[in-house]
């Protein structure tokens, strides 16, 4: 008999549900919330309300697309955290209620583990390459910047992480500061393709070990733009492509310097990336280039699996399910990774 796992993701501003059958993806529905655009960032209360509105139709669509009934489900995997507490509560409560109604187990998933395992989502009629263990995952999103060593699907260790801002935050905050819009990552990525990445230099942090810092480069850009605008009020408009290209290159240099160091220290050459910033075209090109030069096997997730999605929660949940893990109904969501 086949195992059908329903995945539910609601950690930030995307409500998503997915169905996998014996590890193969049958459906992955994502409702992105547009309401935050006017505010230049995610407004937690509005996110929770939008999840409430979206969760039933999104789950219904995921089941319909997979061609199954709720009673066909074997288990429900849901994101327990980290993320926005109100948003997580919607997905967690829904998973519990549906689990009780169907009398099937629920399985909690760490959102970051979902990103780390995104390469294991198998799709019918696709090549479905995935790294072998152990591998390193550069996990880069709006809330995290980490290098994670993955020894098996359920066993991973954070080797380094940001001590201040996440790299996605640096993209988003700097885009806002330059008046380019939200979310900043895709906007800067698009403009960077048209600019000269070597024209401007921004400060790079000197942090020991494998940890990251992105607050200094953000401040460096802020002062640079402020000083240039004093000289020429049109400086931003005239140079935004070069500024974005140079800024993006600086962020990628910072990310790669520690990833290369981690690969050298561990001797691991299986390299993956995950999280929203892994959609960045400059980062993807650079990882592939470094991979060719350094003899790494690199794995880049499909774009639809870079940002928040329930397919990655379902596949992570499936690994937990196969390992015999079940989550008690008194589970509560957690907002921080340290509480996991
Ligand atoms: O993983 P994600 O969807 O949400 C969490 O933070 O959990 O990541 C969102 C982040 C945002 O900071 C967004 O600006 C960034 O991913 N992002 C990108 C690109 N697409 C999304 N950053 C750089 N280049 C992109 N193409």
Quick description:
With 340 residues, the protein is an alpha/beta fold. The protein has helices at residues 44-66, 85-102, 111-116, 167-177, 184-192, 215-231, 235-266, 281-294, 310-322, and strands at residues 4-9, 14-21, 24-32, 75-81, 106-110, 135-140, 145-152, 155-161, 270-274, 297-299.
Strand order of the largest sheet: 3-2-1-4-5
Spatial gap, N to C terminus: 33 Å
- What composes the largest sheet? 5 strands, mixed
Total of DSSP H or I helical runs spanning 4+ residues: 9
Describe the secondary-structure layout:
Blueprint: E1 4-9, E2 14-21, E3 24-32, H1 44-66, E4 75-81, H2 85-102, E5 106-110, H3 111-116, E6 135-140, E7 145-152, E8 155-161, H4 167-177, H5 184-192, H6 215-231, H7 235-266, E9 270-274, H8 281-294, E10 297-299, H9 310-322
Parallel strand pairs: 1-4, 4-5, 6-9, 9-10
Antiparallel strand pairs: 1-2, 2-3, 6-7, 7-8
Keywords:
340 residues; Nucleotidyltransferase, domain 5; 5-stranded mixed β-sheet; 9 helices; 10 strands; binds 5'-O-[(R)-(carboxyoxy)(hydroxy)phosphoryl]adenosine
Describe the structure.
42% of the residues lie in helices and 19% in strands. It starts with a strand and ends in an 18-residue tail after the last helix. The chain has 340 residues and is an alpha/beta fold. Helix 2 links the parallel strand 4 (75-81) and strand 5. The protein has two domains: 4-126 and 305-322, ATPase, nucleotide binding domain (Nucleotidyltransferase, domain 5, 2-Layer Sandwich); 135-303, ATPase, nucleotide binding domain (Nucleotidyltransferase, domain 5, 2-Layer Sandwich), CATH 3.30.420. The radius of gyration is 20 Å and the shape is globular. Helix 1 runs parallel beside helix 2, helix 4 (167-177) packs across helix 5 and helix 6 (215-231) packs antiparallel against helix 7. It has a five-stranded mixed beta sheet with strand order 3-2-1-4-5, with helices on both faces. It has helices spanning 44-66, 85-102, 111-116, 167-177, 184-192, 215-231, 235-266, 281-294, 310-322, and strands at residues 4-9, 14-21, 24-32, 75-81, 106-110, 135-140, 145-152, 155-161, 270-274, 297-299. The model has no long low-confidence stretch (mean pLDDT 95). Bound molecules: 5'-O-[(R)-(carboxyoxy)(hydroxy)phosphoryl]adenosine (KG4). 5'-O-[(R)-(carboxyoxy)(hydroxy)phosphoryl]adenosine binds at residues 12, 141-143, 168, 171-172, 183-186, 189, 275-277, 279-280, 307-308. The site of 5'-O-[(R)-(carboxyoxy)(hydroxy)phosphoryl]adenosine has 19 residues, from helix 4 and helix 5.
